[in-house]
Amino acid sequence: MRAILLGPPGAGKGTQADTIVKEFSIPHISTGDIFRKNIKEGTVLGKKAKEYMDQGLLVPDELTVELVKDRLLDEDCKNGFLLDGFPRTIFQADALEEALKDMNQSLDYVVNIEVRKELLIERAVGRRVCKDCGQTYHMTFNRPAVEGVCDNCKGELLQRKDDTEETVTKRINVYQEQTEPLIEYYTNKGIIVNIDGEKPIAEVGKNIVAKLRNK
Ligand code: AP5
Ligand code: ZN
């Protein structure tokens, strides 16, 4: 299965990606995670990406597109993949289509997670991420057993730098301007699957898997 997860910041893309990739045995490709890894390692790409991410802006297409195209050539993507946070502009979507065409592949689904703007800020601001394994929690909706400590690896839980109310608001506006047009783009291609992302985490996951299995 070749699929994309679409949705505004805090909609639950990363959370639901875990369920989808396990269910369908495909790799999870998150451009946000790739950029954050590069920032942590202090690479040239990381330094460039950080300038934009800290402000809640999109990293320029020319940095993002090549990165994803390279990743899709990896052996583990041969039988499918789940893209999370890419594409985010019409330019990126066109580039992805071209790249897949060159590989004689095409997209099966675009899972569009719908959540009202009012809920997104609370979700992103309350998010905590394990600094060692990357597991995501929420201070209200998905708490770890011990405050500030990862259930999986006992790592410390940190807040993302771009999860302040101000930057999240900016990211939501950027989403509405630059990414939301993709909903129509993929609706016209007949591959969009709309999901109510306001239900509890487990229920959203079940609904996504059921819809993808029945399509
Ligand atoms: P990225 O990392 O992709 O961030 P995002 O799209 O803003 O999405 P988030 O990670 O904030 O949210 P999510 O939908 O994954 O939600 P989550 O599951 O964590 O991008 C970051 C930055 O990188 C961008 O701003 C940009 O600068 C750059 N970038 C990345 N890709 C790019 C691209 N293609 N082009 C250009 N630039 C790019 O859930 C959020 C919280 O809510 C968690 O705490 C979770 O526990 C909780 N939660 C989840 N589901 C539920 C639920 N159903 N009920 C209650 N709580 C829930
Ligand atoms: Zn951890």
Automatic annotation (TrEMBL):
**Per its database record, what is this protein's job?**
Catalyzes the reversible transfer of the terminal phosphate group between ATP and AMP. Plays an important role in cellular energy homeostasis and in adenine nucleotide metabolism.
Q: Which SUPFAM superfamilies match?
A: P-loop containing nucleoside triphosphate hydrolases (SSF52540)
* GO molecular function annotations of the record: AMP kinase activity; ATP binding; zinc ion binding
Print the keywords alphabetically.
ATP-binding, Cytoplasm, Kinase, Metal-binding, Nucleotide biosynthesis, Nucleotide-binding, Transferase, Zinc
Q: What is known of its domains?
A: Consists of three domains, a large central CORE domain and two small peripheral domains, NMPbind and LID, which undergo movements during catalysis. The LID domain closes over the site of phosphoryl transfer upon ATP binding. Assembling and dissambling the active center during each catalytic cycle provides an effective means to prevent ATP hydrolysis. Some bacteria have evolved a zinc-coordinating structure that stabilizes the LID domain.
- Protein's cellular compartments: Cytoplasm
Q: Which organism is it from?
A: Sedimentibacter saalensis
List the catalytic activities from the record. Answer: AMP + ATP = 2 ADP
Gene Ontology CC terms: cytoplasm
What is the protein's quaternary organization? Monomer.
Q: What is its EC number?
A: 2.7.4.3
Stored Pfam families: ADK, ADK_lid
Tell me the protein family, please.
Belongs to the adenylate kinase family.
Q: Which residues bind Zn(2+)?
A: 130, 133, 150, 153
Q: Region (LID) spans which residues?
A: 126-163
**Where is the Adenylate kinase active site lid domain positioned along the sequence?**
127-162
What pathway is it annotated to? Purine metabolism; AMP biosynthesis via salvage pathway; AMP from ADP: step 1/1
Note down the stretches annotated as region NMP. Answer: 30-59
Mind telling me what this protein is named?
A: Adenylate kinase
Which amino acids does the record list as binding ATP? 10-15, 127, 136-137, 199
Coiled-coil ranges per UniProt = none
Q: Which residues bind AMP?
A: 31, 36, 57-59, 85-88, 92, 160, 171
Q: How far does the signal peptide extend, from start to end residue?
A: none
Q: What class of enzyme is it?
A: transferase
The cross-references to PROSITE patterns, in alphabetical order and at most eight, read:
ADENYLATE_KINASE (PS00113)
